[in-house]
Amino acid sequence: MIAEVGHFSLTLALALALVLAILPMAGSFLPAGATARAFTDTARPLAVVLFGLVLLAFVSLGMLFLGNDFTVSLVATHSNLSLPVAYRLAATWGSHEGSMLLWVLMLNVWTAAVAAFSASLPAVLRVRILSVLGAITTGFLLFLLFTSNPFERLIPPPADGRDLNPLLQDPGMVFHPPLLYMGYVGLSVAFAFAVAGLIGGRFDAAWARWARPWTTVAWAFLTLGIALGSFWAYYELGWGGWWFWDPVENASFMPWLVATALIHSLAVTEKRGAFRSWTVLLAILGFSLSLLGTFLVRSGVLTSVHAFATDPTRGVFILIFLALVIGGSLLLYAWRAPALGSGTGFALISRESMLLANNVVLVVAMAAVLLGTLYPLALDTLGMGKISVGPPYFEAVFYPLMAPAMFLMVVGPLARWKEAPLPDIARRLRWALAVAIAAALLQPLTTDAGFRPLAASGLAFGLWIVAGVVVALLDVLRDSNGRLRPSRARLHPASVWGMQLAHLGVAVFVIGVTLVKSSETERELKLAPGQSVEVSGWRIDFKDLRTVTGPNYDAMRGRFELRRATDAADAPARAMMQPEKRVYRAQRMPMTEAAINRSLWRDIYISMGEPLSGSDWAIRVHVKPFINWIWLGCVMMALGGLVAVADRRYRRRLATEDSSQAAPARDPSPLPSTPVAGDFAAR
Amino acid sequence: MKTLRLLIPVAIFALIGWFLMKGLDRDPRLVPSPLIGKAAPAFALPVLAADSQWSPSEMKGKVWLLNVWASWCAACQVEHPLLNDLARDKVVPIVGFAWKDKRDDSIAWLKRHGNPYAVVISDFDGRAAIDWGVYGAPETFLIDRDGIIRYKQVGPFTPEIIRDELLPMLRRLAAP
Known about the structure:
Largest sheet of chain A: 6 strands, antiparallel
Helix content of chain B: 25-40%
Distance between the termini of chain B: 72 Å
Distance between the termini of chain A: 53 Å
Number of helices of chain B: 6
Mean pLDDT of chain A: 84
Mean pLDDT of chain B: 83
Order of helices and strands of chain B: HHEEEHEHEHEEH
Oligomer: heterodimer
Largest sheet of chain B: 5 strands, mixed
Structural class of chain B: alpha/beta
Number of strands of chain B: 7
Structural class of chain A: alpha+beta
Radius of gyration of chain B: 19 Å
Number of strands of chain A: 10
Shape of chain A: globular
CATH topology of chain B: Glutaredoxin
Low-confidence stretches of chain B: 27-31
Strand order of the largest sheet of chain B: 5-4-3-6-7
Number of helices of chain A: 21
C-alpha cells in the first residue's frame, strides 16, 4: 500500500511538473492581462504542491525501508533484517533508484525555495525560473518512472534482503549524498536564472545580485558534500588516501570548479556589469556538468568503484535528456548572447582582469579534469586503443594550474576595479610576499626529507594567502590616518567577511595537503599481540585481539595502546585504538574499519590487513600530519559562502530596480579614490 | 563571426555527446575481448623484485589466471581479498601482472594487502599489456592448458562473478 502511494504521488508529480514547465512559461509571453496572470500565477502553488508530492514519495520509500518491506524489490536488494535502523534509512538513497529520487527531491526543495523566497524578483523572471525548474523536474521524473522505478514490487518476496553494501554502512555515507546532491542540484537554480534571463534578454547588475546568493549556497553545499565524501573515503576505505581522481569524484569536482568560477564572475557582473555573457555561459556549464556527472555515474560508460548501477537504457535516456537540456540551453545562449551587450572596459591590471584570469584558470582546470576523465573513452571510441588515466596525470596537470589561482587570490581582492596601480599593490603586499618566501625557506623544518620544491611552494602559497587576508583585514580596520580601529569592521558587509573566510579556508586546505603529502609516514608492519612498535615518535603496543559480533557483521578487533616514544613504559596510555576487520554476514564482504586518533596537528591511523602466519597480522600505521586541515579548509570555504549569503544587500527588496535599467553597474562615474571601503567591499 | 564564436560551446558539447553515445555501446564491463578463444600473447617480462624473466609458456599444461593490477588502482583493492581467498583455497594459480606502476609501490602494496600470486611480473611501461588488450585495472584473464584465453573479467571480481562465472568455467576446463 505504501509503495502504491509513493508510486502514485510520483506519477501525479510528473503531471504537475509538466504543467509547471508549460503553463507559467506560456503565460509569461502573453500580453499582460487577466489571462496572462491566470497562467503565471499557477507557478508558485504548483511548485509547492510538486515539492509536497515528491516529499511524500520519498517518505514512502523511507517507510518501506524502515519496515523492511521485502515485497518491494529495491528494499529486498538493499536492506536486511539485521541492518540497523539508521542504515535502513540511509539505504533509502543508497541505491541507484533511491538516489535518483533523492535527486528529484532536492531539485524540488530548491524549486520550492525559489517559489518561497523570490518575492523580490520581477514576476516574469520568477515564473520563468520556476518553469525551467519544472521542465528539469519533468525530465528526471520521466527517467525515474520509466527506467528506475523505486517502488517496483517483487512477488513472491524473499525471506530476507540482500543487505546494503557494507561500504555504505557508515555515518558519513548517511549525510554525504544529501549534501552533495543539494550542491549538484542547486546549480540548477543558477541554470534556471541563466535560461530565464536569456529568454527575457535581461542581464543587468540586478539579475546578478538575485542569482548570487542561490549560486553561493549551492556552491557551499557542493563544497561540504565533496569534503564529506573525501573524509568518508579516508576513514572507511582503509587505505588512508583522501582523493583518488576517480571518475565519480571528478564528476563532482568539475561542477565545483565551474561553480567557483561562476560565483567570482557573478561578482563582476553585479559590481561592474562586465562578463555578462561569460557568467551566463558558466551558469549553463555548471549545471551541464552536474548532469554529465549523473550520466557518467549512472550509465556505466566509465568504470569506477562508485558506479554501482549500470544499465544501457538508463544511459540512453540520460543522454537524450542531456542533449535536450545542455544542447538546447547552449543554442539559446548562441542565439541570445549577442543581445547581452558588453560591460564597461577595464585596464590590464584591475580587479576585473584578475577575476577574469582566475575564471580562465578554473575553467581550464575543469577542462583538464574533463579531458582526463573522458580521454580513455574517446580513444576507445576512435579505435585508438584502450588506456587509463591515473592520478599522476591529474596531479601533474592540476598543481601548475592552481598556482596562479592561489597567487591571484590575494592580489585580486586588494586590486581596485577598473584600474589598479601596480606599485600600490606591490607596496601593500610586500609583507605577505616576505612571509611566503620565509615559509618556503623554512619548509625543511617540517620534514626529515630536506628541501622539497613542491612542498616549499605549497607552504609558500598557503601562507601567502593567509598573509594576504591579514593585510586586507588590516586595511579595512585602519582609518585614513593609518590607526587601527576595530569598530570599522562594521562598515563592511557580510559578503566581504565571507569571502575572506573562504579564502582563508583555501589556505588551510593548501597547507594541509602540502604537509600531508610531504611529511606523512606510512609503515607496513607484521605484528602479533604483545608486540610493540615505534612510528614517528609514537609507540604503539598491540595488546590483544578479540572477536566481536556486530548487528550484521562479525569482526576481529585489535586493541592498540598509544603512547609517545618519550613516555615511560608504564605511563598510562594516551589512547586506546581499536581497528576492526569485519565480515558482513549477508554479502560475505570483508571490510576494514580503521582506528584513527585525531587531532588538529596529526592523525594516527591504524588499520588491520590480513592475518599472516601464526598470530601475526599485517598492520598498517600511518602518521598523517595536518590531514584534518584538508577538511577544515573545506568547511571554512563553505562557511564563508554561507556568511556571504547573509549579506543584507541580498535581502533588500529591489522593486525600484525592476522597471528601470539604471543598474549600478552602468554607472560611469569613477570609483572613489580611497582604496578602503568601497573597493574592498566590492567582492 | 561573432555568432560562430558563440556556437563553439554547442560544438564542443556535440562532440562530447557523440563520444558518450558511442561509449554507451561500449560498456567497459561487458565488452568481450577479441582475444577470447585465441592464444595468449607471448611476452617475457621481469619478475617483480627478482632478477629473472617470466613468460606465459611456463604455465603450459596448467589452467591459470592473469590478474592485471596496480598499486594506484582503487578497484584492485576492492577485489584483492577475493584473490587472497582463491589463493588460500588453492583454487587456481594466479599470476600477478603489475601494470604501469613503480617497483617499490608494487612491492609495498603486496606487502600491505597480501600476495595471492604464484608469481608477479612487472610491465611498468605497459608495452606487453597492449598486446593483451588491457584497458584498465583490474582485468583478469583465464588461460587454459593449451595457452588459450578462455575468459576475461574487466573490472573487479565480485563474489557473485566468481561463484557464477569463474568457478563453473574452471570446473569445465579442469574436466579432461
